[in-house]
Amino acid sequence: MSDSAASGFDPAPARLTVGIVSAGRVGSALGNALERAGHVVFGVAAISDASKHRARTRLPDSQILPVEQVAARSELLLLAVPDAELPGLVRGLATAGVVRPGTLVAHTSGANGVAVLEPLTALGARPMAIHPAMTFTGHDEDLSRLANTCFGVTAADDIGYAVAQSLVIEMGGEPVRVAEENRTLYHAALAHGSNHLVTLVLDAVQALRQSLAGPGLLGQQLVDDQPNGLAERLLAPLASAALDNALRRGQSALTGPVARGDAGAVAAHLDALEAADSEIARAYRALSLRTARRAAADPTLIDLLEGRR
Q1: Of 67, 73, 128, 232, whose CB has the highest number of CB atoms within 10 Å?
Q2: Contact criterion met (CB below 8 Å) for 138 and 54
Q3: What residues pair up with 183 in beta bridges, in sequence order?
């Protein structure tokens, strides 16, 4: 007999009364997905005007309520607050004693597992970490992107994992188990691959804008500092192909002068970037060194990038 059968607990209840703290980009998107799956989001906690607007537009049948009322009435309490705010929120709810024993309490923090929910677990709550590995903008594309999103799931026991898995599947996502002790590494990897990718692309766009300054061809768009311009259109197909190749082909996706061990070209790049923006040049050097080591490049190139020649 399974743990869930022995306990009499249904790991995938057909319909849950859901409360959300708060109606930010993530909370409102997941709340919408849960409602589409047949659950009832009765209430959300929203403070800022932006959060209240998202609650009214994405969850129009839900009430905007104080945090304590949302927590007290929930069968599933979804805590969708920033990582740094989560421990304080959990302690406050535990002190107030408003979360009923047996309540499913899930948070959306990537950096945390279930240990952060211990004050509520001690009161009888069932803890889960359900983190969507996706960036949220607050716009309609958030809802459609959930269908192709993996969720990092951590729970305290097999019952918790079964419930979390069911909820993620109902929202259209793919559940992926992450051990409690690996949550920080998991979160660091996602931040490195997404947040730093944005910085890298924006640095490349900045340098491209400088390289394209001046008169253009007949009918060519003028280069300015607005997003979605000529520099972005020039970079987009190359960057998209590089990302696709890296994810599908691994190490063999490495191309370019660093992978070829062309120290002369790399030295010229460093000089040009230094003249344009020394911060971008330093970033290029650091990433080139990492690329050279991955590619087992010629020691001459590695010496150049390490500044030994």
Answers
A1: 128
A2: yes
A3: none
CA–CA separation, 109 and 113 (whole Å): 8
Q: What is the pTM of this model?
A: 0.89
The Cα-based distances of 280 to 51, 72, 110, 228, 304 in angstroms read 36, 51, 29, 20, 17
- Neighbouring CB atoms inside 10 A of 12's CB total 13
Q: Report the C-alpha gap between 231 and 223 in whole angstroms.
A: 7
How would you write the pLDDT of the chain (309 residues) with one tens digit per residue? 444 444 555 555 569 999 999 999 999 999 999 999 999 999 999 999 999 999 999 999 999 999 999 999 999 999 999 999 999 999 999 999 999 999 999 999 999 999 999 999 999 999 999 999 999 988 888 888 888 899 999 999 999 999 999 999 999 999 999 999 999 999 999 999 999 999 999 999 999 999 998 888 878 888 889 999 999 999 999 999 999 999 999 999 999 999 999 999 999 999 999 999 999 999 999 999 999 999 999 999 999 999 875
Q: Write the burial class of residue 53 (CB in 10 Å: 0-12 exposed, 13-18 middle, 19+ buried).
A: middle
251 CB neighbour count, 10 Å cutoff = 10
Q: What angle do CA 179, 184, 190 make, to 5 degrees?
A: 100
Greatest Cα pair distance in the chain: 75
Q: Are 21 and 81 in contact (CB under 8 A)?
A: yes
**Helices 278-294, 183-211: inter-axial angle, 10-degree rounding:** 120
Q: How many residues are given for the chain?
A: 309
CA distances in angstroms from 32 to 54, 110, 136, 167, 274, listed in the order given: 10, 20, 14, 13, 48
